[in-house]
Amino acid sequence: MAIDQYAVFGFPIKHSKSPAIHAAFAIQTGDAIEYSAQEVSPERFEQTVTQFFEAGGKGLNITVPFKERAWAMAQNHSPAAKLSGAANTLYLNDQGQLCADNTDGKGMLRDITENLSGQIRDKSVLLLGAGGAVKGVLPSLLAEQPASVCIVNRTLEKAQQLSLEVGGVTSACAYEDLKNASFDWVINGTSAGLSGGVPPIPTSVLKPSSSCYDMVYGSGDTAFQAWAKCHGASKAYDGLGMLVEQAAESFAIWRGVKPSTAEVIASLREQINSNA
């Protein structure tokens, strides 16, 4: 009997933990699947997606830098994908149409509210960045009914455009405009952390009760976590839990069953720390 095929497409991709995460989920649920990480050249992305599904593939995760292009390929979009303009999950429906979803926001919010016992409702939130990562989490973040969400970006026009698109309690500003504001949550959705950098945030955005969350992760603290701890944040988290939670949401879309995540997060954390 043929084994259902799944994959994550990205460029680069060899760092991906997704195959290990989905293998753990499949053991939990007793599902026989194969999940691979495939590096796809940017000039061949759409062609490779089409070929994957034509060959009988059941589902794809999409990561940097292809999330907006994956969204553009789809005929059907979930509400989260429609609002964000980016997709990290693709599959075919019963009519053979390519469907796009975005589980990043659900994954991050589940990590914050369930795993970390944090609260977004009625809190002020500062979102760093206005690219695909931030677009992906904004719909779920707003669904938690925060008091306010300020989007800050090096290019102010990009932050302003995103704020206009999503509306609600969002606003936009440049980094130099933050000197007289503080927030309950500061969430880093920039790519600066991938190269060990930190956005140019004034320390005044933090108050003693502030919590910080980085959407990326690494062995030990990320650069943003280290900055947050150094400047007095109450708590500083990385995005490993978000990675596992968004994967669990994708798995549930494809397989119809939601795997548990706590043991997978703990196992990955142990593995990453032991390899540091």
Gist of the model:
The chain has 276 residues and is α/β, with parallel strands linked by helices. The protein has 10 helices and 12 strands. Helix content is 39%, strand content 19%.
Description:
The protein is an alpha/beta fold. It has 10 helices and 12 strands. The strands form 2 sheets. It has a 6-stranded mixed β-sheet with strand order 2-1-3-5-6-4, sandwiched between helices. Strands 9-8-7-10-11-12 form a 6-stranded parallel β-sheet. Strand 8 (148-152), helix 7 (156-166) and strand 9 form a beta-alpha-beta unit. Helix 5 (104-115) crosses helix 9. The longest helix is centred in the last third of the chain and has 16 residues, at 240-255. The protein is globular and about 60 Å long.
Helix-strand topology string: EHEHEHEHEEHEHEHEEEHEHH
Mean pLDDT: 94
Q: How many distinct beta strands?
A: 12
| H/I helix tally | 10
Question: How far apart are the termini?
Answer: 40 Å
User: Which bin fits the share of residues in helices?
Assistant: 25-40%
- Strand arrangement across the biggest beta sheet: 2-1-3-5-6-4
Structural class: alpha/beta
- Form type: globular
Which consecutive residue ranges, at least 5 long each, have pLDDT under 50? none
Q: Round the Cα radius of gyration to an integer and report it.
A: 18 Å
Binned strand content: 15-25%
| Major β-sheet profile | 6 strands, mixed
